[in-house]
Design brief:
Elements (H helix, E strand, L loop, with lengths): L4 E7 L9 H13 L4 E7 L7 H8 L4 E5 L5 H14 L3 E5 L10 E3 L4 H9 L6 H4 L5 E3 L27 H6 L15 E4 L2 E2 L10 H5 L4 E2 L2 H15 L3 E4 L8 H17 L5 E3 L11 H10 L3 E7 L3 H7 L5 H13 L3 E8 L6 H13 L4 E6 L7 H8 L24 H10 L8 H5 L2
Parallel strand pairs: 1-2, 1-3, 3-4, 4-5, 7-10, 10-11, 12-13, 13-14
Antiparallel strand pairs: 5-6, 8-9
Helix pairs in contact: 1-4, 2-3, 8-9, 9-10
Bound molecules: cobalamin (B12) and iron/sulfur cluster (SF4).
């Protein structure tokens, strides 16, 4: 029996434009049990390109190797798994939103900290009977079991070590978080303030990964993180990655007020973005005003469709009238509005696409982004499409620019023509950004 084990966490190649925030949280888990039972290391193959020999050299002598799997990096991960199997005896643990789509020994599906900790604290008992008692872990070949064991107190996960994750090297290599309204990007870094989303949009994997119950970091935690990023890494744009930042409107207001105070003490321009969008039904005018004061220059919202029928099929729980009203308020307070849309949702017809086109062209969005619907595992709509054999490719690399599903009443030509007919107009008002 060993009294110590060695674990390596890998952030794979092919995660272009994505900063490994999840690795920061998971390394904190490992560090807490480090020294006692676990010796941990982190390998970022996305930041440092490696040839096969270097990769093999880096994976030797570990008992456990954990790899993060998004739908966009399956090819690389499958290659790593083959190399690990050929060159090491390590137990392979996959994690992340597409964890179960690769041939790992164990997969941790959804929020990973609790399951990984339970797993490693008992590393001498890694047999299927024991592992099947840990929430959120799938044993190779078995059914997927949701959900994970969600952590209530997010602050207990500790502060992200942006040095360990080599934020400055990411920035030197051109890492930029999305901000549609400006050409010259600021030095940016991502943070999470909340996890989870209570909604059940049928295409979205967010709640599958992070649960329906929203958990929050304390305002103090968030401000301390922003301060470190601002002072130590000269970050001037914070990208909040939450699924539903404004669900608890009061929390969002308190956060904005604390950021306004932070801005007052710091002279340089400082912006905030919410790349995943906020829900219009979780915004009021007071919050919109506070967001502007705190440093938002644009607000991203996700109507997804201009067809009420499609919105119903998607279970979006939003309506177009509300969207228009909130858009007016956001403009009134001098911020740009970006809208995310998708087409080719199951059940859509030409008429629905036309409604989306009319809405995009006639509404007041400053910019619209249109992608093809591409179903993600774990969502209700994915299960249905798999059951009906309706996907062109299963377990493929997920890419919203490619067509993987064509609704019954439409053709590939219809979809390509429709997407091509929506020219990306930008009507951004730079002066609104200069306010900040
Ligand atoms: C923010 C975000 C982005 C940002 C990333 C910004 C950044 N970090 O720099 C941007 C906008 C760039 C982005 C892009 C894309 N995204 Co995105 N994104 C998200 C979002 C909202 C949050 C991800 C995140 O950072 N969460 C915070 C961290 C802490 O959580 P986490 O990564 O999930 O990690 C936890 C667990 O998954 C697990 N875990 C993760 N790795 C590992 C490894 C091990 C060993 C273990 C044990 C556990 C574990 O433990 C972690 C801690 O709890 C999710 C939705 C969601 N709520 O999950 C979608 C999501 C991950 N994205 C998705 C997709 C498809 C994409 C794109 C491919 C879309 C496209 N353009 O075609 C691209 C990726 C392009 C690329 N180069 O690969 C899908 C993934 C679907 C899938 N099954 O793989 C999701 C789930 C959204 C959805 N459609 O439902 N995305
Ligand atoms: S699309 Fe947004 S609101 Fe809907 S379930 Fe996903 S995160 Fe929640």
């Amino acid at each position: 029996m060993k009294d110590r084990a060695k674990m390596l966490l890998i952030w794979p190649e092919g995660m272009d434009g994505i900063f490994p925030l999840s690795m920061g949280y998971l390394m904190n888990v490992l560090k807490k049990i480090d020294g006692k039972q676990i010796e941990s290391s982190f390998l970022d193959c996305s930041l440092t390109a490696m040839d096969t020999e270097q990769f093999i050299g880096s994976i030797k002598e570990f008992d456990y190797i954990g790899i993060s799997i998004w739908g966009s990096n399956l090819d690389n991960v499958n290659r790593y798994i083959d190399l690990i199997r050929q060159n090491s005896d390590a137990i392979i643990i996959s994690g992340g939103p597409s964890a179960h789509l690769v041939d790992a020994d164990f997969s941790i599906i959804g929020e990973g900290e609790s399951s990984l900790k339970a797993f490693l604290l008992n590393f001498n008992r890694i047999d299927t009977d024991f592992v099947s008692t840990i929430q959120g872990v799938r044993i190779k070949g078995n059914e997927i079991r949701y959900p994970s064991d969600f952590i209530d107190d997010l602050d207990s996960l500790g502060y992200i070590d942006y040095d360990l994750l080599q934020l400055d090297r990411y920035l030197d290599n051109g890492y930029k978080d999305w901000m549609y309204s400006i050409k010259d990007k600021f030095r940016s870094a991502p943070i999470m303030t909340t996890r989870g989303c209570p909604y059940s949009c049928a295409y979205c994997q967010g709640p599958v990964v992070m649960g329906h119950n929203i958990r929050k970091h304390s305002i103090e935690y968030v401000i301390n993180t922003i301060q470190t990023l601002y002072e130590k890494h000269n970050i001037r744009q914070i990208s909040i990655l939450d699924d539903n930042l404004t669900f608890y409107i009061d929390y969002a207001k308190q956060l904005c007020e604390a950021i306004v105070k932070f801005r007052e003490k710091h002279q340089e321009p400082f912006l905030l973005t919410t790349i995943n969008g906020v829900r219009v039904n979780r915004l009021d005018e007071e919050l919109i005003i506070l967001m502007k004061k705190a440093g938002w220059a644009e607000v991203v919202i996700s109507p997804e469709s201009g067809s009420p029928k499609t919105l119903k099929l998607m279970k979006k729980s939003i309506n177009i009238a509300d969207m228009e009203q909130k858009m007016e308020l956001i403009h009134k307070h001098r911020m740009n509005v970006v809208g995310y849309f998708m087409c080719a949702y199951p059940g859509e017809t030409k008429k629905d696409l036309e409604m989306t086109r009319d809405y995009i062209l006639n509404s007041k969005f400053d910019r619209c982004i249109l992608n093809f619907f591409n179903p993600t595992p774990g969502t209700p709509v994915y299960a249905e499409l798999i059951k009906n054999g309706a996907l062109r490719q299963v377990n493929n690399n997920i890419n919203y620019k490619a067509i993987n599903y064509i609704p019954e009443d439409l053709t590939e030509h219809d979809l390509i023509e429709f997407k091509g007919s929506i020219t990306e107009k930008t009507r951004f008002k730079e002066k609104w950004i200069k306010d900040l």
